[in-house]
Amino acid sequence: MTRLEHKVAIVTGGSRGIGKAIAKAFLDEGASVVVTSRRQTAADAAVASFQHSNAVAMACDVSEYAAVERVVLETIERFGRLDVLVNNAGVAEAYQRIIDAPLEAWYEPIDVNLKGTYHGCRAVLPHFLRQGKGKIINMAGAGSGDSKSDNTACISGYAASKAAIKRLTFSLSQEYKNSGVEIMLLNPGLVRTEILGLHKPTDELRQRADAFEIIRDIFAQPPSVAAELAVKMASDWSNGKSGVYLSALSKWRAQQLLWSYPIRRWLRKIDKTEY
User: Fold this and answer.
1) Is 57 helix (H, G, I), strand (E, B) or coil?
2) Contact partners, residue 102, CB within 8 Å, separation at least 6
3) Is residue 230 part of a domain?
4) pLDDT band with cut points at 50, 70 and 90 for residue 149
5) Which structural domain, as residue segments, surrounds residue 100?
6) HSE (CB half, 13 Å, CA atoms) of 103?
7) Terminal CA-CA length for the chain
8) Looking at the predicted structure, is the pLDDT value of residue 48 above 90?
9) Confidence of residue 210 (pLDDT cuts 50, 70, 90)
10) Domain-located, residue 176
11) 194: Cα within 13 Å, side-chain hemisphere
12) Rg (alpha carbons) of the chain, rounded to whole number
């Protein structure tokens, strides 16, 4: 028996990168999955690539509550149930100092990342509470760490959104403690995706390009690592574990990647695949 058999999940921002890997992993584990993207064509393309009858594409701008609520209601109407929500949709502003960027650049990650996560939680919680169970997986990221060395210069909007998502997750996990609803936080680690902004480098990013590329070579992992953790969180493993936090780049894993970097570089085993 697969770990997510008979479960129904929504993965926002599931048309590419980490979200797509999570959606694929859920399908492989027996779940039915609704994949959302701001563009219907992007969601359709992702679902077509899965070649799986239990995958459904829906357009959704998570910054709009009505759009998120519609996806939740249509999912329940289509499948008769909903068990898991992964609030994965996310963006980052261009890599710039705050006064060099337009106001809207800082607002967007707040609208998509933070408000989108809040909208998802708000839309599914009434349903989960009525049925006495459900799982919400929110996404951490740069800015949500506890260390001052979690350097997020030039992406303060993204960092602020992720720090707030962390606090939102743990606040809600306490609000709905012992309700049967698990509200959890997943840090996917560093993955080579478009959100890093390297396809449209700013002057600030060009100045740091060499150092940033070394960091990616050392710590970047494929999205399958985070997807496996998401499956674990969506499964019965997390029953009664609301507030749990899992990271694809734990302290132990980061040390392992750092120590192995010289060998991987010498053997030319650095994976530079973009997802």
Assistant:
1) strand
2) none
3) yes
4) low
5) 8-198+222-251
6) 0
7) 30
8) yes
9) confident
10) yes
11) 9
12) 18
Q: Are 104 and 91 in contact (CB under 8 A)?
A: no
Separation CA 28–CA 18 (nearest Å): 15
What's the rounded Cα separation, in Å, for the pair 8 and 46? 17
User: Which residue would you say has higher pLDDT here, 67 or 208?
Assistant: 67
Percentages of the chain per state (helix, strand, coil), in multiples of 5: 50, 15, 35
The whole-model pTM stands at: 0.96
pLDDT at 196: 64
Give the domain CATH number at 111.
Answer: 3.40.50.720
Residues 6+ apart with CB under 8 A from 15: 35, 36, 37, 39, 42, 43, 45, 46
- Is residue 188 in some structural domain? yes
Sheet holding 245-247, edge to edge: 55-59, 32-37, 8-11, 84-87, 134-139, 181-187, 245-247
Tokens of residue 260, six digits: 């192995």
State the catalytic residues: 158
pLDDT per residue over 18-39, tens digit each?
999 999 999 999 999 999 999 9
Q: Which two tokens stand for residue 37?
A: 């993207």
List pLDDT tens digits, range 107-143: 999 999 999 999 999 999 999 999 999 999 999 998 8
Domain count across the chain: 1
In a domain, 182, yes or no: yes
Which spans in 3-152 are helix H?
17-28, 40-50, 65-79, 103-109, 116-131
3-state secondary structure of 181: strand
Q: Are 234 and 84 in contact (CB under 8 A)?
A: yes
